[in-house]
Design brief:
The structure is a homodimer of 408-residue chains. With 408 residues, the first copy, chain A, is an alpha+beta fold. In chain A, 32% of the residues lie in helices and 27% in strands. In chain A, the strands form 2 sheets. In chain A, strands 1, 2, 3, 4, 5, 6, 7, 8 and 9 form a 9-stranded mixed sheet that branches. A 6-stranded mixed sheet of chain A has the order 13-12-11-14-10-15. In chain A, α1 crosses α2, α2 packs parallel to α3 and α7 crosses α9. The longest helix of chain A is centred in the middle third of the chain and has 23 residues. At the A-B interface, α8, α9, β13 and α11 of A face α8, α9, β14 and α11 of B.
């Protein structure tokens, strides 16, 4: 079974069109701020949501709309989170109504999402005036996905988009995705904004099962700043146009679908970490030898989430003491005396700690290893077979700058 | 019952002397790096320790030494944490042996602590050569406490010292303390380094009970960066020279002692927050109306610990959406629709959110309120009688700078 990278993002799967335009919600001049993804036929659909107790209105409305496991379009604005604001529910409903009218759909078949500043009323007339333009922008070509991925960005610096093809039941299926990340990203949640499309035929419960299976080891292993947003959502629509016999149970077809989904989510997770606010480096922390995968995840996330580790990586400082310190306060069970820590990159590998104590490593080599943009932090805890990978980024002056005056 | 601020720090209580000298462990030229606190009589003693699974050798040794509830001196070095390093236990033992020899004490009556870089061997000969000088530096005058508080600093910018007097059983008692904070400070732990002296007579179990009672609402409510160190410790020695009848049970005398202890720890906690690495502001988050004190503590700590809130305060940005967002991911139970948030300082108060939604407040007033160095974040959750206060600091470029090249 092979999974191939293909072009087209969310427009790669058959029957999907997408587009993005500017209505004026985003403050940055010229920035697109409305994205639409549409399937020509009704889809099975599923989503994971933020675990934040404070949930934005569009999150709550999408939960209601997906209760029947069906959707046909995703409508998302950036520039405003539509969270913690009077009339938020009505505004989210209005968005679904407008998209439904544009696409001739039942508003309950719309997945709606918002991202941006919390606590400011959403300017519905601005959105309304841009709807005709958004309808015209819909296209099945690759630029439709690009425009949509651009429109959901906030402080992101790069578009996050991928598509893969894979075989199910002798048919070639496609799975595409776009995502936005950057700030307020932490593993204690469902995920950040990610919208996925596929032409595979799969029932709603199995679609949800696939998300629930893949997200814990992918999107939930990304941390940028420890803050879990009110608006996070990962939604997927499957229109079945690939013609495979519908996946309705666990089995080889489900496994193949989940593998393709994992490939897409890992790709997007890494991009979100690399494009963390102010980041200069992607950090990938791999824990092996833990007593269980769950323990390995706790350890890897503690390292990736440590502000002090993040600052050290920004400064190219092999300060592994902060890494073992983060393992120590993670709450996970392990024996500090068994820990081995290595730092790795395309420039080489340096073992900095063994049996829980520091090695007399070459600082010159360490500096060389920490120079590139992708740094691996490899931790072996010598207790069992459990493993995990977490992704994050370093902490730079720019993170503070970006977040010191986000609203202005 | 009144508690009065007095001069003298840890030398204020009768029978205590202290001193600090430089042996050369700290890299900064001229920086003192050895501190000693001594009581002329054997003390009852107690301590709280880091909850980090990785505990430095001096923490483990002090735990052993305090098993009998007795101590007569505290010996601490800065510049090196003596953690995660081969021979660490032996080095900590050597420190106790040297201090015991200098003071003619059983090494087991020494509380030993280290703070600084993790994973580098402690240079024992350097310490040994400075012991005579350290002995000569011991004094009961205020400068002894100042020298000791200066010697335990790492990236701290200011000395942290306080003393109070209070009455017990008709006798005037004193309680003094010094502390170091700055980085690796987070509430999920016993505490940071703090050394306390008192001439009150109180049994070891009640001394420990007083620490356990006061620390959860004081030192455990301080967060600088979310990282819990391997070396944190708060130790207290009581020599009983004030002549009160020894506190051996709960009751009014215990309450009076605990009140004095709380006064000292709150003062030191606020100083540690204000002097957080790179901080330009002290943040004090007050939660009222929670269903319990425990819930209030979780909520207050989540706000103080949010990187995004910290960046907003640095930027004087009344971005209250990040505050309610932090409440939401705290894990505590509350009704977002009941939340009221105000920002306050000596320049005024501005209510920014009521009933969970944003108010149309004056940005001009908000900017004025966020100008001073001490900012209050006041949260009313409208559910019950539970309350808590947490202290933290803003997040500045300098935090990243300080921690990007801490070892070099």
């Amino acid at each position: 079974m092979s999974i191939k990278l293909i072009q087209g993002g969310v427009c790669a799967p058959a029957g999907f069109t997408a587009g993005g335009v500017r209505c004026g919600l985003a403050k940055k001049p010229g920035k697109k701020d409305l994205a639409l993804i549409y399937s020509e036929t009704l889809c099975t659909a599923a989503a994971s949501y933020t675990t934040n107790k404070v949930k934005a209105a569009p999150v709550l409305l999408t939960q209601a709309h997906l209760r029947d496991g069906k959707a046909q379009a995703i409508f998302c604005n950036s520039g405003n989170a539509n969270a913690c604001v009077p009339g938020g529910e009505e505004a989210a409903s209005r968005m679904c109504f407008m998209a439904g009218k544009l696409l001739d759909l039942n508003p309950e078949d719309i997945i709606v999402a918002s991202t941006g500043v919390i606590g400011q009323p959403l300017n519905i007339p601005l959105i309304e005036s841009a709807m005709p333009k958004l309808g015209q922008a819909l296209t099945g070509e690759a630029e439709g996905s690009k425009a949509a991925s651009s429109a959901i960005m906030t402080t992101d610096l790069m578009e996050k988009e991928i598509a893969v093809s894979f075989e199910l039941d002798g048919k070639t299926c496609s799975l595409g995705g776009i995502a936005k990340g950057s700030g307020m990203i932490h593993p204690n949640m469902a995920t950040m904004l990610a919208f996925l499309t596929t032409d595979a035929a799969i029932s709603s419960p199995m679609l949800k099962a696939a998300l629930d299976f893949v997200i814990p080891s992918t999107f939930n292993m990304v941390s940028v700043d420890g803050d879990t947003s009110t608006n996070d959502m990962c939604a997927i629509m499957a229109n079945g146009l690939a013609g495979n016999s519908q996946i309705i149970t666990h089995g080889p077809d489900f496994d193949a679908f989940a593998a393709a989904l994992a490939r897409v989510l890992i790709y997007l997770a890494r991009l979100m970490a690399r494009d963390g606010e102010g980041a200069t480096k992607l950090l990938e922390c791999t824990v092996t030898g833990a007593s269980s995968d769950a323990t390995a995840r706790i350890l890897a996330k503690a390292v990736i989430g440590s502000n002090l580790v993040k600052c050290a990586m920004f400064g190219k400082d092999a300060n592994w003491g902060r890494i073992i310190c983060a393992l120590g306060y993670s709450g996970a069970d392990f024996d500090p005396g068994q820990v081995k820590i290595s730092l790795a990159s395309e420039a080489g590998t340096v073992v900095v700690c063994q049996n829980g104590t520091g090695l007399n490593f070459s600082e010159e080599l360490a500096l060389k290893v920490l120079e590139p943009e992708e740094i691996g932090i490899q931790i072996e805890v010598g207790q069992g077979e459990g493993g995990a990978v977490a992704w994050g980024c370093d902490f730079s002056y720019d993170y503070v700058k970006i977040n010191g005056d986000y609203r202005s």
